[in-house]
Here is the input.
Amino acid sequence: MSNYDFNIRERAEMFKALGNPHRLAIFHRLVACCMPGTLCDTDCVERFTVGRLGDGLDIAPSTLSHHLKELNRAGLIEMRRNGKMVECWIEPDMLDNLGSFFAIPRDELMRNTK
Here is the structure.
């Protein structure tokens, strides 16, 4: 399997996870610090507790946990237990990786799909 195939499969899992409206809303809330055109590094990444992340999303806690697990499994978010709280965040490098998919030169993309 080529590196290109691996990247396509990895990113397909990411996009599949984002295909659910609840997961996309959760991801969008976490991306707030790292919007394009803003300075975002690991020191300024905002970490949300699961409770804070669920505020206003109208999602049952068990369903929220499921969606967070799927986002984490797809490599889109990071999670860490901090005492009784679970913190969630997005690493800026992951956003660069995901965004680089759209930066593939058209001739390379066409060459690899034939």
Notes: The first strand starts at residue 48 and ends at 49. Helices lie at 3-18, 21-31, 50-54, 61-73, 92-100, 106-113. Residues 23 and 67 are 6 Å apart (CA to CA).
